[in-house]
Amino acid sequence: MLPTDAESLDLTRAYTGYYTLVFTDPDLATRHGAAYPDKVERLLAGQLTAAQQADQIDTILDPETTAAGLLALTNGLGSSVLGGQRDGAAALRILIDHIDRLFKPGPNRP
Question: 3-class SS at 107?
């Protein structure tokens, strides 16, 4: 989740607060700590695999590693918005730039 407007900013704050609680409670960490991020990584990896099969991204990329990197980038960008380093629009531009670098040029892409 990337905080780009008031609603997503509130959701990012809530998620960050919950995630902080997970760090302080070993039982919560065991039950919930990695469940959501793992699901998101699997979803992204599946989309990247589909893009490879459609010859939209390079097959040399490892979908799982690339998905983990995109999730980490998004989390870091979200933290930079919460901390006041940049606004949501700047964070979104950075994320889009990284995603665009994955895709090959084609008839509908420069």
Answer: coil
Q: Give per-residue burial for 80-108: e unless 16+ CB within 10 Å, then b.
A: bbeeeeeebeebbebbeeeeeeeeeeeee
Q: Whose CA is closest to 81, among 90, 72, 73, 93?
A: 90
CA 31, CA 6: separation in Å to the nearest integer?
A: 30
Q: What is the pLDDT of residues 20-66, one digit of tens each?
A: 777 787 777 666 656 677 888 999 999 999 999 999 999 999 999 99
What does DSSP assign to residue 34? T
Take residue 11 and report the two structure tokens written for it.
């959701």
What is the biggest distance separating any 2 CA atoms in the chain, rounded to whole angstroms?
51
d(CA 108, CA 56): 11
Q: What is the pLDDT of residues 62-80, one digit of tens each?
A: 999 999 999 999 999 999 9
Q: Are 97 and 70 in contact (CB under 8 A)?
A: no
